[in-house]
Amino acid sequence: MTEAKTLPSLVELPKPRFRHLLGIELLEAWEIWSFLLAAVHFKRHLQTSPQPPIPSPLTGKSLVTLFYEPSTRTRTSFEMAARKLGMGVTHIAVTAASVAKGESLKDTALTLHALGYDAFVIRHAHSGAPHFVARVLEERARQTNGKVPSVLNAGDGMHEHPTQALLDLLTMWEVFGRIEGLRVAFVGDILHSRVARSGMWALLKLGAEVRFLGPPTMVPEQFAAFGVRICRKLPEAVKDADVVYLLRLQLERQQAGLFPSVNEYHRLFGMDLRKLQELCPQALVMHPGPMNRGVEIASDLADSEKAKILDQVTNGIAVRMAVLWLLLSR
Q1: Are 88 and 146 members of one domain?
Q2: What digits encode the pLDDT tens for the residues 253-303?
Q3: How far apart are CA 34 and CA 169, in angstroms?
Q4: Half-sphere exposure of 165 (CA within 13 A, CB side)
Q5: What is the pTM of this model?
């Protein structure tokens, strides 16, 4: 599927091959485009007043959010997206659930499966946790001859964050009218960033150029094998970029000694409006949030018209509606 001038109807969009959305790496380009095109439909729906009925709404289906790490944007937009599709929504506060008493991830998943949820949205500190839950639920469904719920990865360790990549692509597509040929520079803590990994896979599959820049201890050379251009200085990475994608320092995942100091990091890799205007005045700026103002991004840049950060947040609702609808309206 390519960037068609005429938008197919929602019901004409091909459904993804998988019941789950665990990452971008295994998706094909047409599947990414199905999610993006569906998101365009849902964004138009959200912007229309009064809102027209949704084809095949998910009324009667239920979703549970299970977040073992903090979240504002992802959890809230998943829950809002589900409610707008007519789903019932439950949030499990992990610190107040049986997890705090020592219950394993497997037993938590099986308990929620026994309650009949149709979709699990999971964020976890360990890479592969949503994949593990998906395998547990599939095995249980085989044992009981029951349904297999969909598992959606809302961020697993340093591995992937697929819906973030999709909303980022939608934001870029809205601005540039294309993805193919775009030059996107990710700047910051690449090593610990699931956002950078999912973004890399999505952009490369749709024909964009991806660049990584950060302290050498945070940009593994292995990424070059996937077709990423590894840069060592800010001007090299951003001089002709269409998008400068700033990443926060993930101090909660880091070991000591990866960079000299926060001040040194800001001097070499942080961006403010003046630096953007000098190095890449043509570029727009994106950030997955939460921002560390004064570290990777200055307030004058974050609050400027160059920043598309709040557009990313807005697009998260439409993208997550698209993902839920395509996975659950089978």
Answers
A1: yes
A2: 455 556 668 888 999 999 999 999 999 999 999 999 999 999 999 999 999
A3: 12
A4: 31
A5: 0.95
